[in-house]
Amino acid sequence: MQERVKSPKFDVVGTRPVRPDGADKVTGRAKYGADHSVAGQLVGKVLRSPHAHARIKSIDISAATALPGVKAVITRDDFEDQAPEFVPAGEMLVNYRDVVRNVMAREKALFEGHPVAAVAATSESIARAALKLIKVDYEILPHVIDVIDAMKPDAPIIEDGMITAGVTPPPTTPSNVAKRVEFLLGDVEKGFKDADFIVEREFNTQAVHQGYIEPHACIATVSEDGTADLWTTTQGHWIVRAHCARLLGWDMTKLRVTSSEIGGGFGGKTVVYLEPIALALSARTHRAVKMVMSREEVFKASGPTSGANVWVKMGVKKDGTITAGEAVLKYQAGCFQGSPVQPGCMCAFAPYDLANVKVVGYDVLSNRPKVAAYRAPGGPISEYAVESVVDEIAEKLGMCPIELRLKNAAKEGTKAAYGPKFGPVGLVECLDAAKASPHWNAPLGKNQGRGIAAGFWFNIGGETTVNLQLNEDGTVTLMAGTPDIGGLRASLAMMAAEELKIPYEKVRPIIADTASLGYNFVTGGSRSTFSSGMATVEAARSIIKQACGRAAKLWEIPEDAVTWEGGEIRPAGDNAGKFQPMTLADVAKVAGKTGGSIVGVGAISAQGAAPSFGVHIADTEVDPDTGKLTITRYTVIQDAGVAIHPSYVEGQFQGGAAQGIGWALNEEYIYGSDGRLQNAGFLDYRIPVASDLPMIETIIVEVPNPRHPYGVRGIGETSIVPPMAAINAAAYGATGVRMSDLPLSPPRVLKAMKEARKSAA
Amino acid sequence: MRYESPDTIEAAAKLLASESGDARVLAGGTDLLVQIRAEVLNPVLVVDIKRIPETRTVKEEDGGFRIGSAVSGAELKEHPKLKKIWPGVLEAANLIGSTQVQGRASLGGNLCNGSPAADSVPAMIAAGAVASIVGPNGRRELPVEDIMLAPRKLALQKGEIIASFKLPKKSRASDAYLRFIPRTEMDIAVVGCGVNLTLDDSGTCTAARVGLGAVAARPLLVEDAGKALVGSKVDDAALDKMVAAVRAACKPIDDKRGTVEFRIDVAGVLAKRTALIALDRAKKG
Amino acid sequence: MKHHVTTTVNGDEVEFLCETDQTVLDCLRNELELTGTKEGCGSGDCGACSILLNGRLVCSCLVLGVEASGKTIETIEGMAKGDTLHPLQRKFLEHAALQCGICTPGVLVAAKSLLEKNPDPTETEVRYWLAGNLCRCTGYDKIIRAVMDAAAEMRGA
C-alpha cells in the first residue's frame, strides 16, 4: 500500500514520526471550537428563516428582549450595510455586500435557515425560548431551487436587478445568472472538424456538503474598551479577523482571533457565520458569548458546494488524439454569487494537452445557502463530466483508458487552457504507475467493473508567516498560522528539524493567534505544508545565518569565514580548525551576550505552487436486483512532489477519495417542493461509514516541485477530483449502463439498468 | 419536563394514565431523545421503565421466550439460547442504528416509536410475537402486527405500556430478516422483510409468516405471502408466488429514501432472499 | 427542579445537577467539564459522543443525565492509565489514524469496547462495529489498521 515512486533521501523529511499534537488528540485533551468556556459566558442562538424566499417586512424583538435571562437581541439593524467589494475567502472570492447579508438577512430571507435575528441569554433553554418570542413578518415569495429552473426566464429572481456580468452586450432583463465566464484556446470548430468522431454528453450533480464532523463554534468576548477576543474553529483566523473587523467597523488590531483545534473544514470553514454575530452580541453585553451550531444548522445554513449541470463535447481522431474539448458548466451559487464555476472551467480539461478548448461557465443563484469552498472547489464536478466522456471515447476507440490518457497527457511545457504553461508535472508518472499497479492488473469478478480517471488541482501559495525561536537550550519553538487540519505541525517540525539538523523532538510547533504572528492566509488551496513549509525553511535559514554571525563575533572572524556543515558552525578557510565548532545550542546559550534572542522569521507570499495530478482506479460490484453499488477495491495514485510525512500524504489521498466516493454514491441535498431541506442530518445525508469502504491503496508519486526547497506540491485537494468519474466508469463496467446523474443511488441505478434491459430486449 | 423511574409496571402505567399533558415511555431513548431535541415531541413527563424487572428480563417460558420490552438489542444478542432459536429477530434488532444505538434500543421502543420502517418489527411479526400490555385497566395481549395502526399511531390506550413480548414455542432456528439500505449500515430501512418458516420432516413448509416493513403506512403481515409457501418445499415456483404476493401487498410512498417503484421491486427481491435464508436455517436445525 | 446525580466517571465518584432534558453528553461537557467526548450531531448518528455506560458502548447524546445515577461511565479521558497510553491510543498515533482528530475520542472508546468483547476481530467485524463512528478525514483505512494492530499487540500476538 505504501508504495512510493522516486523518493529523494533526507534525514527527517520522508520519515513517519508521531505528530507533536498526538497525545492531546488521542486523550481528549485537545480543545476544539466548542470545548472552550469562559466564566459567566452567555449562550448565543440564531433565529433562522423557515422560508426559502421571503421579504422581511418587520422584526419585533420586544418580547424576546423582555424575557428574564435574555441579555441582548440583535437583527439586521445591528450590522451596517457593506458596499460591494470582493475579497478572497479560501480559493473563492466573497463580496462584503453579500457577506453581511449572509451573516444576517437584510431585505429578504434567501434560503431556509437564513439568520434573521440572534439572542444571547444566560442559558440554552432561555435562548431557545427567546427565539420563539421574536415575531418576524414575512412576505413569502416564490422560490427556485434547481439550477436549470433558476435559469428559466420565468424563474423567481433572487437578487433584484441582477444583470449577468461577462456577457456582451449585457442582458436587458435581470436574471439569476450572476456571471458568465469563458476560457478559449485555439479553435474548437476546427478541432471538431478534424475529429474522426465526437462524443457529446450532459451530466447532472447534486449539492453536497463538506461533512466535517465538528459543527461551527466560537466564543466572543468584547470588553468595555473595545478590545475583543474570539476563539473559533476555522481554517483561517486572519480571514475571520478581517471579515469580522469589517462587518463590525473595528480596527483589526482590536480583535485577536485564536483558532481552536479544527474538527474538519475541507473549505467550509474559510468563511464566517457565527463569529460576527457572537462578537456583536458580546459587544452589547460585555460578557463572553458562546455559539455552537447544531448539526441541522450546519447542513441548512453553512456552505455546501454547488450542484450543477455540465455539458461536454469532445472530438477525437482514430489514433486517440483528442482534437477539441468543449464544455458548458452551470453551477449553483446558492443565494449569493460566487460558485466555483470558474475553477471548474479551468480544471475541466487540465489533464490534457489540447490545442482547441472552449469552456463556458455560468454562476447561477437560487434559494439555497451560499456555497462555500469544498476541496478543489468546482473541480470534481467538471472533471467528473470530462473524464466520463474520455472513458466513453476510450471504449469507442477500443483503446485502453490509460493509453488514451497517456497519448494526450499534459506534461512539462503543456499550455493549459486557462493560461499558464506547466512546469514539471507528474500525470504521466501517475498513469504509468496505474498501469503497473497490482490493482489495475487484478482480475474482476461477476457483476464487477473497473474504472479509472485522472484529476488535477492547481494548488496555491499565498501570504504566510512563520516564526522560529531558538530557545536558550538550543531547542526551537515554531509558530505557524495555518491551522492544523491533520499532520501540518508534524510536517513543519520535520522541515525545521531537517534544516536545523536537530532532532524532530526538539522542535515544538504551535499554531499562533492573530496577535502573535504576521498575516497568514487560510489553510486551504492545499497550501499549508507548501507555504508554511517554505516560510519555515526561510525562518530556519535565517536562524542559521544569525547563529553563524554570532559565532563569527565570538571568534572575532568575518561572517563569511564561517560555514554551516552537518549541523555545526565551523570556522572555514584560513581559520579552519582554529576554533571548536559550535552547535546551535552552543550559540543559543550565549545569545544574550552576543546580541540578543535569535528569532527567524519567514514572512512570504509563497510563489511556485505547483499542480498535483492524480489517477484513481475504482472497482465496483453491483447487486443487479437492487442497483446497489459496492466499492470493492480502490487505489489512489497521486504526485506529491516530495512527501514530507508519507503517512499524512496517504491520509489526504484516502480522505479525499472517501469524500469523492460519497459524492458519487449517496450524498446529495434533497429539497421538498416547499424549498426546505429534507435531509439535514447524518441519518439521511449519507456519508460513507467504515463498513462501506475497502482499504484504500495509495501510491505516492514524487515529481519534485523545483520551486519549493523540499520539492513539495500541495496534495490535499486533487484526491477528491477523480473518484466520481472513476466510479461512474466502474459502474458502467458492472451494470452495462453509462450513468450521467449523480449520486449513483440504488433507485437511480436500478431504474437505469431496467430501462437498458427493456431496450435491449 | 419531569422524570420518573418507577419500579413496577403498574406504577408506570398509572403515571402515564394520570398525566393530562403528553407523557412518554423511556426505554432505550434512541428515538425519544432525538424527537425531543428536534422539538417534534415536547412531553411534560418521561417515565423510565428500565427499573422494572419485567421489562428488562429475558426468560424461557412454555418452550418459548418472554422478552422484556426494554431489553437492548445488544443484550438480546448476548443471550445464548435466544440467538440459536431466533436469529432473525436478533439480527433485526441489531441492525437498528449503530453498535452504540443497539446498546440501548429495545424491541418495545422500536415498535412503539410508530415508524413503518422499524427494523425489528417485520421480524417480530414473522416470529408471531405477542405483546403483553399493561394499562390502568389491567393486562391484555396483542399480536405485534396489530400494534401499529399508522405512522406514530398505536393501538394502545393512554397509560398502556408494552411490558414484554412472547415469542412462541420453537425448537430450532427458522427465521431471517433482511433489509435494503443504500449504505451498509446506519440507514433507515428502505424495505425490511422478516420470514419465519416451519418445515416438517419431509422438508415441506407447514407454516410461514412474512412480515414487511417500510412499504406501507404500517409494518405488514402478508398472509398471502405465507400461504404461497405453505404446502410447498419452498421451491422457485412457490417463491415466485410469494414474491408476487409481497409486491401486491406493498403500498409504499416516494420519499427521500426510496421511490414507490423501487420499494415494490426490492420488496420482492428481499422477500425471496430472506425466505431462502430462513429455509436454510430451518433445514439445518 | 434539577436532578442531583451521583455517578462514577473513569473510576472517580462525581456529582452534578441537571435538568431532565440534559443528556449525559451535556452533563459530561458542561457540568463536569470533560470535553473529550464530542457532539457531532446530537442525534446518535455520528458516534463522536461514544462512552461506555456500565461497560456498554452507547451514544451519550442518547442517554439522559439523570439516567447516569448510580452507574459507571468511561470516557476518553479515562483510557490512558497515568503515564501510559492505551495500546489503541499508541497505535492510532503510529498509524496516523487521525487527521483532524474530532472523531478520534469516539472511535477509540468504541474500539476499546470492541476489543473487550472480541479480542481477535476480522477487518469486516471492525468495520461493522465502528460503522456508527463517522470519520470524514481518513476514509477509515488507517483507523482499521490501527485497531487490528492494537488487537494483535493486546493478544500478545
> Strand count, sense and closure of the main sheet of chain B?
5 strands, antiparallel
Structural class of chain A: alpha+beta
Mean pLDDT of chain A equals: 96
What strand order characterises the main sheet of chain A? 4-8-2-15-12-13-14
Query: What is the CA-CA span between the terminal residues of chain B?
Result: 50 Å
What is the global morphology of chain B? globular
Main β sheet profile of chain A: 7 strands, mixed
Tally the beta strands of chain B. 14
Describe the overall structure.
The complex is a heterotrimer of chains A (761), B (285) and C (157). Chain A is of the alpha+beta class and 761 residues long. Helix content of chain A is 28%, strand content 25%. A seven-stranded mixed β-sheet of chain A has the order 4-8-2-15-12-13-14, with helices on both faces. In chain A, strands 1-28-27-26-19 form a five-stranded mixed β-sheet, sandwiched between helices. In chain A, strands 10-18-17-16-11 form a five-stranded mixed β-sheet, with helices on both faces. The relative contact order of chain A is 0.13. The model of chain A has no long low-confidence stretch (mean pLDDT 96). In chain B, α11 (236-249) packs across α12 (260-284). Chain B is 36% helix and 25% strand. By secondary structure, chain B is α+β, with helices and mostly antiparallel strands. Chain C has 157 residues and is of the alpha+beta class. In chain C, 33% of the residues lie in helices and 16% in strands. Chain C has five helices and five strands; from the N terminus they run ββαβββαααα. In chain C, strands 2-1-5-3-4 form a five-stranded mixed β-sheet, sandwiched between helices. In chain C, α2 (87-94) crosses α5 (141-155). The termini of chain C are far apart. The mean pLDDT of chain C is 97. Chains in contact: A-B, A-C, B-C. The interface between A and B is medium-sized, with 23 and 19 residues.
